[in-house]
Design a protein that fits this description.
By secondary structure, the protein is mainly beta. Helix content is 11%, strand content 46%.
Length: 195
C-alpha cells in the first residue's frame, strides 16, 4: 500500500544535507504540522498540533512524535471532541513516525541551496502502523540548521487508522451532514544539529 499521510517525521531528512557527525533535534518553536478538514462538503477549516518532538541520530535513525492532545482547532469544544472521539488521546496520546535516513544523499547541499528528497517511513497512529512515502523539499538555512517542507500537501485517509467512526461522531455532535475523511496535511519543520 502506498500511503501518503502525516508529515511529522519529514524533517528527519535534514541528515541528507550534512555529514553524520551529530544528533539533530527538531526546533519545535519553529516547526509546524497542520491539516485542513472540510465540513458539509464545502467549508474548509485549518488546524495544527502545538507540541512536536523529533531527532535523528548519527546512524540515520529518525523518530518524530506528535502530541495529539496538543491539537489546536481554534475552538475549545472542538479540541476536546477531537481528543476524545477522533484521536482517543487517553489511549493513544501520540502519533509517531520512524525512518532510517540515507545520510549520503545530499551531503553537498550548501547553505541557501534546496533539494528534493524522496522519503519513506512508517506512521503509527491510534495503534495502526502504516508504511508511507512522499517527496520533501529540503533547504539548508545555516551550517547547523535545515528546513524541511512537504513539496505538496499529502493526504491522510482516516479509514487507514480506523478513524472513520470518530469522524462520524464529530459530525453528529456538530449537527453536520458530513466531515470529509481524506485530509490534506502540510509541514514546515526546522532541525538543528547538536554536537
Amino acid at each position: 500500500m502506498n500511503l501518503r499521510p502525516t508529515l511529522a517525521a519529514f524533517a528527519a531528512t535534514l541528515l541528507f544535507a550534512f555529514p553524520a557527525a551529530a544528533q539533530w533535534e527538531l526546533s519545535s518553536d519553529e516547526s509546524r504540522i497542520g491539516f485542513v478538514s472540510v465540513k458539509a462538503g464545502e467549508i474548509p477549516e485549518s488546524h495544527h498540533f502545538k507540541q512536536l518532538q523529533g531527532s535523528v541520530d548519527a546512524s540515520g535513525e529518525a523518530e518524530i512524535t506528535i502530541a495529539l492532545d496538543s491539537i489546536e482547532t481554534y475552538i475549545d469544544i472542538r479540541n476536546e471532541r477531537m481528543r476524545e472521539f477522533l484521536f482517543e488521546t487517553d489511549e493513544y496520546p501520540t502519533a509517531n513516525v520512524a525512518a532510517t535516513i540515507d545520510m549520503d544523499a545530499l551531503n553537498d547541499l550548501k547553505t541557501g541551496a534546496r533539494g528534493s528528497v524522496d522519503f519513506a517511513g512508517e506512521l503509527t497512529l491510534r495503534g495502526e502502523s502504516v508504511p508511507f512515502e512522499t517527496t520533501l523539499t529540503v533547504t539548508r538555512i545555516a551550517d547547523n540548521r535545515v528546513l524541511v517542507e512537504t513539496t505538496d500537501p499529502v493526504i491522510l485517509y482516516a479509514d487507514f487508522f480506523e478513524m472513520t467512526p470518530g469522524i462520524n461522531k464529530l459530525a453528529e455532535l456538530a449537527s453536520l451532514p458530513s466531515i470529509t475523511s481524506a485530509v490534506p496535511v502540510a509541514a514546515s519543520l526546522v532541525f538543528e544539529r547538536r554536537e
